[in-house]
Amino acid sequence: MEDSKKSCPGDSARVWNGKEPPGGEDSEEVTEYIRTIASKDAQPFDMTHLTQISVSNNICSILYGKRFDYDDQVFKEYMKAMDANVAGLASLVAGLVPFVRHIPGDPFKTHDIVRGIRLLLDTFIQPIITRHIQELDGGSIPPDDFITAYLRRVRQDEADQKVSYITEKSLPMVILQLFIAGSETSATTLRWAVAYFLHHPDVQEKCHQEIRKVVGVDRRPTMQDRPEMTYLEATTTEVLRIAPVTPLSIPHATSCDVSFAGYTIPKGTTVIPNLYSVLHDPEVWEDPDTFRPERFIGPDGKLIRYEKFIPFSTGRRVCLGESLARMELFLYLAAMIQHFRFLPPEDGQLPSLEGILGFTYTPKPFTFRAIPRQ
């Protein structure tokens, strides 16, 4: 596979104020993403595919120890199949009521989902795992990534004759779940952020002024700058509140009989948390349908932490990827706002703020212009 730096679209575009950004593997993907946006030459484009691939590459770096070129055909087919499966999973009934998968005609597309998952496992994930196993068992030095760490744990448990749920057989599905969960949510939130920036140019400008004050124009924002960017953090938080990517979280099940608010929930009952209702509760949030980042900034200018801000769920089953997602959102948005001003197409058409509710809550397709800032 070719080095992505040699073939990534827009590699020759002049960004970062004409300077090559300072080194740092942690922001390599953000750098490539910004370069690709710059290559659009301020023409209207749909950010969906580019953003999904870029964010997915962050997960690939963690899971596989490598990133993929944006034009890599195998990776593009993998992403296409993943998108189809995420769309198909909108039919949650198929998972909650198992017998519907046997209804003639497959009205919930359950068979298509299963075939798509099998395709992803067999043609993309399993070959990568197999190479890791061959390197690990053959004495070679495998990549320092999640798969290697997982396999080493399996080998150690086997050597200790320890019964464990961490098995080599379960690894492909673990990888698939981490990939889908880690890619879809952050990419979709970035799209929602741009949609709201287009509707609220004043918010976009306030974020830019804060970035310019804290970072300037000669270097890219880093995680060390995050504590000083209260308004950008508040804006990101408001995007997560007003347009939660997983409004119904994911189904859980009670492990024992539970008494709650006068009701008894038997052991094994499927429970679907309605996160959207909490994040839009008028008793908690004044004007809940209004986009207002200032609601998260206190009189002292510091970020307010609300107990009922739960876009990543809450409790012991809170999303494990919350920290990674918040980090990604900060690095991407800070770099994007630092270098571009987002405008609607020449016809002034603004994106709809009514999303599409499926397995995730996504914005309707839209295009916009990224105008380089001077």
> Helices and strands, in N-to-C order?
HHHHHHHHHHEEEEHHEEEE
- Structural class by SSE content: mainly alpha
Based on CA atoms alone, the radius of gyration comes out at: 22 Å
Overall shape: it is: globular
Biggest pleated-sheet summary: 2 strands, antiparallel
Membrane topology: Peripheral membrane protein
Cofactor: heme
Pfam families: p450
Keywords: Endoplasmic reticulum, Heme, Iron, Membrane, Metal-binding, Microsome, Monooxygenase, Oxidoreductase
Explain this structure to me?
The chain is mostly helical. The chain is built from twelve helices and eight strands. It has helices at 4-7, 28-38, 48-64, 73-88, 93-96, 110-137, 146-159, 171-199, 201-214, 230-242, 275-279, 322-339, and strands at residues 252-253, 258-260, 263-265, 270-271, 340-343, 356-357, 361-362, 369-372. The strands form four sheets. The chain has a two-stranded antiparallel ribbon.
Overview in brief:
The protein has 374 residues and is mainly α. 46% of the residues lie in helices and 6% in strands.
Keywords:
globular; mainly alpha; 6% strand; 46% helix; two-stranded antiparallel ribbon; 374 residues; 12 helices
Write the layout of secondary structure elements.
Layout lengths: L3 H4 L20 H11 L9 H17 L8 H16 L4 H4 L13 H28 L8 H14 L11 H29 L1 H14 L15 H13 L9 E2 L4 E3 L2 E3 L4 E2 L3 H5 L42 H18 E4 L12 E2 L3 E2 L6 E4 L2
Antiparallel strand pairs: 1-4, 2-3, 5-8, 6-7
Helix pairs in contact: 2-3, 2-12, 3-8, 4-6, 6-7, 6-8, 8-9, 8-10, 8-12, 9-10
